[in-house]
Amino acid sequence: MGTPQAQNSIKIVRGSDLQYSSSQSRWLLHSLLPASSCVFLIAEPKVGKSFCALAMGLAVASGKNCFGSIVAMETGPAVHLAAEDASWIIGERLSGIATAMGCNSQDLSKLHIID
């Protein structure tokens, strides 16, 4: 018997070869975070992935701009999976991000942290 063929394969394309239609786009955060997607932040340690993820989650939860100018297009509850940091570190970071974004406790209540 031969080796079974994979039903799905990974397709790799160059960024220059991608085609898109802005009329089909649906974003949570304009041109940064697509709606109906699962997004992973992958990078070297200690480059700001946790801060970035918390800021994006809080922007979706609150409707506030992310990183100063990226508009929240859709809002609603958001979930942040904190796989590495202690809860007090997450709380301290989130407090600073919320202050910088002008968020209140009601905004923070829409961001759920899995610790």
Which term fits the overall shape?
A: globular
Largest sheet: 2 strands, antiparallel
β content, as a range? 5-15%
Let me know the average pLDDT.
88
Alpha carbon gyration radius: 18 Å
Number of E-type strands: 4
The percent of residues in helical segments reads 25-40%
Structural class: alpha+beta
Figure out the total of helices: 3
Compressed to H and E, one letter per element, the order equals EEHEHHE
Low-confidence stretches: none
Give the strand order of the largest sheet, numbering strands 1, 2, ... along the chain: 1-2
First CA to last CA: what distance? 47 Å
Describe this protein with a few key phrases.
115 residues; alpha+beta; 3 helices; globular
Describe the model.
With 115 residues, the protein is α+β, with helices and mostly antiparallel strands. It is built from 3 helices and 4 strands, in the order ββαβααβ. It has helices at 49-62, 87-101, 105-108, and strands spanning 27-29, 33-34, 78-81, 111-114. The radius of gyration is 18 Å and the shape is globular.
List the helices and strands and how they pair.
Layout: E1 27-29, E2 33-34, H1 49-62, E3 78-81, H2 87-101, H3 105-108, E4 111-114
Parallel strand pairs: 3-4
Antiparallel strand pairs: 1-2
Helix pairs in contact: 1-2
Short description:
The protein is an alpha+beta fold. Helix content is 29%, strand content 11%. The protein has helices at residues 49-62, 87-101, 105-108, and strands at 27-29, 33-34, 78-81, 111-114.
